[in-house]
Amino acid sequence: MEITTTVGCTLACTFCPQDKLLKAYKKGSDKVMSMRTFESILSKVPKHVRINFSGLSEPWLNPLATGMLQKTLEQGRPVAIYTTLQNMSLSDAIIVKSLLEKFEPQISLICLHLPDQSMNMRGYKPSDAFPEVLKTILSVADGNIFPRGKLEVMTMDGSGQVHEDVAHIVQNLPAWQGHTRAGNISKALSEKIVAMPTPRHDFSITCGKTPFYDHNVVMPNGDVLLCCMDYSLDNIIGNILETDYWDLFSSPALQKLRILNQKPEFSSDSICKSCTTAVKVVPYYEPYKA
């Protein structure tokens, strides 16, 4: 379950259609997740389900993010973190580092998304604290406690070159190939940033990440989205504050999507039919031929 701690990410990355999210998000709903809401969500999500601090915005734009991480780890839950480190204070970074070391077996991955030379992270603002925060989190892999393989660093740029503010800390990152978030990024912008074209699957598919459609995203108001591609919020499968976790997977919205994905034809009503992570379902039999 991905946690969207706040709606309205100030980083405005080119591959992240925040305009569609803000337009679609339910008017009057909480835009910043409270600790009370977060605790309610945790009480509903089974202990084996990995909690991802990622979602549709930078997790640490919510000042409660460090406390949320601590509560999650103290409950013995598996965790992954995807962060730009923006708005993370140095004191937060020191706490996060200690949590990563203390609860290392529960950490699947920490992925750092850094600003790049092409300024795909359009809302990035330099600060004196940021380089020290970055050094602190990177140092978690310096010792013998936290495996280096669990720490990834990336940009969202075809060159992989980081912003000059951090070039003295991190160099030579791999090039990154973007996509259109299942058609949520406009054609004009996708061409400008050289994103992969939006696919059009006219065959039976399933999700390449999980065949159970259970890699979901929860919003600050408790709404649960199908996945992190759905910035238009077209696939809300339930509200976890109002239902049981398992009820999400028998919801009418998810049942409809499963049927559309099962059909050997394209449908604009299925986000999966336009997604780069979808995989073709191959029948286990061949039609009879005389």
Question: What's the quick description here?
Answer:
The chain is built from 7 helices and 10 strands. It is an alpha/beta fold and 290 residues long.
Notes on the protein architecture:
The longest helix has 13 residues, at 90-102. The chain has helices at 18-24, 35-44, 65-74, 90-102, 129-138, 187-192, 252-262, and strands spanning 2-3, 51-53, 79-83, 107-113, 151-154, 205-207, 217-218, 223-225, 236-239, 278-280. The model has no long low-confidence stretch (mean pLDDT 94). Strands 5-4-3-2-1-7-8-9 form an eight-stranded mixed beta sheet. Strands 6-10 form a two-stranded antiparallel ribbon. 23% of the residues lie in helices and 12% in strands. With 290 residues, the chain is an alpha/beta fold.
Throw out a few tags for this protein.
alpha/beta; single chain; 10 strands; two-stranded antiparallel sheet; 290 residues; eight-stranded mixed β-sheet; globular
Strand segment tally: 10
The proportion of residues forming helix, as a percent range, comes to 10-25%
Work out the strand percent: 5-15%
SSE arrangement, N to C:
EHHEHEHEHEHEEEEHE
Distance between the termini: 49 Å
Largest sheet entry:
8 strands, mixed
Shape annotation: globular
Please report the number of helical segments: 7
Q: Low-confidence runs (pLDDT<50, min 5 residues)?
A: none
What's the Cα radius of gyration?
Answer: 20 Å
Kindly report the average pLDDT value: 94
Which structural class matches the secondary elements? alpha/beta
Strand order of the largest sheet: 5-4-3-2-1-7-8-9
